[in-house]
Specification:
disordered C terminus, 7 strands, 6 helices
C-alpha cells in the first residue's frame, strides 16, 4: 500500500468528521446502543465545523494518512497540553484514529512515527503523551509495542460517568538519556 502522510487542510474537515464518528462509535459502543448524550457528544465533537476550527488552530496539528486520496486515519496533536508530572516538553496525541479495516498493517505505527518526527522538530524536542481508555486492550498493546509506557491515570467524563483512561508516555530519546547521564 502506497500511503501518504500530510498535514490537514480545511477541505479535509468532512472526511475527518466521518472517519472520527465511525472509529469512536466502533471503539466505545461495546455492547450498548446510542443514547441522546452519546449522539450529542459525537455530533458536536466530530462535526466538520469542529475540524475546520482544529485545522485553523496554531496549537493543533493534524496529520492525515491517505491512500490515493482516501482518508485512512489521522493523528491530532495538541501543542499546548502539558503532561502532568513531566518536567520536560511534551506534545499530546489527542487522537490517533485508524479505520478498523486498515488495522494490523503497520499504518498506525507509521502515523505515530510521523507524529514523533514532527515533535522532534519543535523547540525542546518534546516527547509524545496520550490517554487511552483502560478497556481498549488492543490500543494499549499497540502503544506498548511502539515503546510507550503507562505514566498515570486520568478520567474521561461523559453523561455524568467517569471512564478510566491511562496516561501513556513516549520514552526519552536515546540521545537525551545519554546527555542526562553525562551531566
Amino acid at each position: 500500500m502506497d500511503v501518504e502522510i500530510r498535514s490537514a487542510c480545511p477541505d479535509d474537515a468532512a472526511c475527518l468528521a466521518a472517519l472520527s464518528i465511525q472509529v469512536w462509535l466502533n471503539t466505545y459502543l461495546i455492547g450498548g446502543g446510542i443514547r441522546r448524550g452519546i449522539a450529542d457528544y459525537v455530533l458536536s465533537e466530530f462535526s466538520p465545523a469542529h475540524f475546520e476550527a482544529l485545522i485553523a488552530n496554531p496549537a493543533r496539528r493534524l496529520l492525515l494518512l491517505e491512500d490515493e486520496g482516501h482518508l485512512l486515519g489521522y493523528a491530532l496533536l495538541k501543542l499546548d497540553s502539558a503532561c502532568q508530572g513531566c518536567d520536560f516538553p511534551t506534545v499530546e496525541v489527542d487522537r490517533l484514529y485508524l479505520l478498523e479495516s486498515h488495522t494490523g498493517q503497520g499504518l498506525g505505527r507509521r502515523l505515530l512515527d510521523a507524529a514523533r518526527r514532527w515533535a522532534r522538530l519543535q523547540p525542546g524536542q518534546p516527547r509524545l503523551w496520550l490517554t487511552v481508555w483502560h478497556g481498549n486492550a488492543r490500543a494499549i498493546g499497540f502503544y506498548r509495542r511502539v515503546g510507550m509506557a503507562v505514566h498515570g491515570e486520568t478520567y474521561f467524563e461523559l453523561e455524568g460517568a467517569r471512564h478510566l483512561n491511562y496516561v501513556m508516555l513516549d520514552p526519552a530519546p536515546v540521545g537525551a538519556a545519554l546527555q542526562a547521564a553525562n551531566v
